């Protein structure tokens, strides 16, 4: 591979460190009584409130519809994900060092699989929280479930939920695009030879 | 003699009546489209200023928005408040301790905002209590009373709590002179046995905590109001006094004889020096100091037993008397710190003293005798000018940002605007009726914000829908941005609003607390979560450590209490969400309800008298299932031995 390509792969790998510094997803909850805003940040290793006490507040409100408490410690993915990202960073650097295209292909493949599985898993969690409701809940509306959308907005009783990817996800997309770009360039150069 | 008195009283009444009838015929600018626009704060929008008004005989402080005149909050300070449980709950009862014991009521007078470099800094609000001499400090992040300090050797703490430019001191002068220390003497021995005091209360720069720095023993006059100097007069504080006649009966006549009474000028820097040199005498006395412990959210009351008193005889050059006509009430220092205005309430002119001239007169010893060794300065040597026709019964003056002063005239019921320096009256407006204090935002500081003057009226008569014999007092808002003052708004107040101070909203709203952090709650009976809730017996005390969250109490079924127990409900509000208080009330409670803010723990004692099962419930409509937020406590016979049980959801 060209030196330039190898540097780009290093940049793509290193920039993944940013995934630790920003949430990957954000859910805004808009309700009449919360003019100050209410919401959740989903990180690769934790779930936090948009404001300091939001998680507790959301859990408090959710008990009316019988939703299970969101307890980050009880979500095993949050302790696995960081290691997967570290592995991705490591493999990217290794691929650049190895200077072999197949290693980059493996990296990109792993990347896409991790992304897809991650999104599916996130959807599964949302589905579980939204459907696994306590039958003794004070508020029961036949046929109503409370699964927030993966992307986009949805009215859930008095709350309008808006779910969007956040900075962490854009960083991952950036890395993937760079990798694509590198592979395309390398392939072109090979053809031209 | 008696006849003469009756005649004078009748004459006073007549003048008063004429003035009032005269006023109601006046035209007003209020009610016009323009005035309405000026005071209209659209739904969801904020007022420009917070205005803190004294609640007068309600003992509290009220918080209004200006220009809308909307009432936001009543802060309980000197009186019990059954709504918030202030003075009823175990955590707040100690705030109302005094050397006389627990006092459920107070007479609040003058709110005074803390200052940095002579400008309001938005940290604290001080307010005095007249009847049982005290000064309170309100924390402006919570809008709650944080501290109350009793003042010994004082009676009628009226001239208070005026503040120096960097909160070095809060000053307090005694309205009534009394024997100091108190003793059993004939009232007629007033002249030989009675004295006044002026107190200088130190304020801790960081915490705001108050302590009495020292007191000055002064002749037995009535000390009325005060203001600290600023700029060049920074080291000085000024105190009006009347009854220089030292009358002890029928003061309205006997204390009105002298042509001139005094403004006492005190060099507090020099006083401080004398105290540090050991010139002050340590005097044994008794006074309460009550303050909120932030961590436990519980008031602590400490009884102190000594103060340092300076006798002017041992402290030469510390205090001078400025002769001021006819029983002066207010004393107000202009923004430059150069002019000291005395509100001679029975005077036909408004005298303005010059600080520079006062210093020169002191240097040149231009004295006109003395009172108990306190030199009286020559009137002509200190006077800067006199405002002619300041209205009848001038009381208080505040200043704007354009070099004008505004003085209330109680008897002629008006505000008179005059120019500082030329002493010329440039405008006057009627008020409805009989204003005491007035308030310009920042109007007693180095940098007034101006814009409005609020007239604080003692009498309302026909101004509002009648409510029987007891009518409200009122505030009136005037625009002062133009040459002419314009009445914009007229609104009722709680209690008698003796004085008010305003501060731009943005200086306070950003610091306003939303919740108390549960993790910082160190109350000994706090439940920081469901797991910490418990019920335990300690002799005949039955302690219930419970939590409140939407929409239940934990526990909500309690058994094991007995007739004759003191049942302590320690309720922690588990919420960490903005504006979600919970209330607590139990049937037949002779105390009060509780209103508990998020993260807070509050305790109320209930003493059941008969066996049975009794409900308790949340009094604050906290949530959609608020009506379900209830519980039961079972009370067994006194001689029984019931098992303690506490559950939720079983």
What is the topology?
The complex is a heterodimer of chains A (193) and B (650).
Chain A (H helix, E strand, L loop, with lengths): L2 H12 L10 E6 L7 E5 L4 E3 L4 H9 L14 H22 L2 H31 L20 E5 L2 E7 L1 H26 L1
Antiparallel strand pairs in A: 1-2, 1-5, 2-3, 4-5
Helix pairs in contact in A: 1-3, 1-5, 3-4, 4-5
Chain B lengths: L1 H23 L8 H7 L9 E6 L6 E6 L3 E6 L21 E2 L2 E2 L5 E9 L2 E11 L4 E6 L4 E7 L6 E7 L5 E6 L3 E2 L10 H4 E10 L6 E10 L2 E7 L7 E7 L8 H4 L5 E8 H9 L4 E13 L4 E13 L8 E7 L2 E6 L5 E6 L4 E6 H9 L3 E5 L2 E4 L1 H4 E6 L5 E6 L4 E6 L4 E6 L5 E6 L4 E5 L12 E6 L15 E7 L6 E8 L6 E5 H5 L24 E5 L2 E9 L2 E3 L2 E6 L3 E8 L8 E5 L7 E3 L4 E6 L5 E6 L12 E7 L8 E3 L3
Parallel strand pairs in B: 14-19, 37-40, 39-45
Antiparallel strand pairs in B: 1-2, 1-35, 2-3, 4-5, 6-7, 7-8, 8-9, 9-18, 10-11, 11-13, 12-13, 13-14, 15-16, 16-17, 17-20, 18-19, 21-22, 22-23, 23-26, 24-25, 27-28, 28-29, 29-30, 31-32, 32-33, 33-34, 36-37, 37-38, 39-46, 40-43, 41-42, 41-44, 44-45
**Share in helix of chain A:** 40-55%
Radius of gyration of chain A: 20 Å
Number of domains of chain A: 1
Structural class call of chain B reads mainly beta
- Our count of helices of chain A gives 5
Summarize the structure in words.
The complex is a heterodimer of chains A (193) and B (650). Chain A has 193 residues and is of the alpha+beta class. Chain A has helices spanning 3-14, 54-62, 77-98, 101-131, 167-192, and strands at 25-30, 38-42, 47-49, 152-156, 159-165. Chain A has one domain (3-188): Butyryl-CoA Dehydrogenase, subunit A, domain 3 (Up-down Bundle), CATH 1.20.140. Chain A is 52% helix and 13% strand. In chain A, helix 4 packs antiparallel against helix 5 (167-192). The longest helix of chain A is centred in the middle third of the chain and has 31 residues, at 101-131. Chain A is elongated, with a radius of gyration of 20 Å. By secondary structure, chain B is mainly beta. Chain B has two domains: 26-509, Methylamine Dehydrogenase, Chain H (7 Propeller); 519-647, Cupredoxins -  blue copper proteins (Immunoglobulin-like, Sandwich). In chain B, 10% of the residues lie in helices and 45% in strands. Chain B is built from eight helices and 46 strands. In chain B, the strands form ten sheets. In chain B, strands 6, 7, 8, 9, 10, 11, 12, 13, 14, 18 and 19 form an eleven-stranded mixed sheet that branches. In chain B, a hairpin with a 5-residue loop joins strand 10 and strand 11. Mean pLDDT of chain B is 94; it is low at 9-14 and 16-27. The interface between A and B is small, with 9 and 11 residues.
